[in-house]
Metal/formaldehyde-sensitive transcriptional repressor
Amino acid sequence: MPHSPAERKRVVTRLRRIKGQAEALERAVEAGTECVDLLQQLAALRGATYGLMADVLESHMRETFGSATAQPPDAPAQDAEVDHMVRMLRSFLR
């Protein structure tokens, strides 16, 4: 969960964007939009949701496992491991 006011504002902004995409998709379904166009909008909505999920997960991992919890000599190694985990998770969330 984003803890700083700036992170919280960024997440809420992204959620509002996702909400707008979902509402546009609902209007498209009600209007009888072609499946190909609906699928394109669904893919965009999925990408936005996965991107937000990856950001929140990254924030959590850095907060839990990042250098703030490590002793100074271990901090760079721990940061590198968190970077590696984040890259791996982001690749799965595409």
In short: Residues 24 and 41 are 8 Å apart (CA to CA). Helices lie at 5-30, 35-65, 75-92.
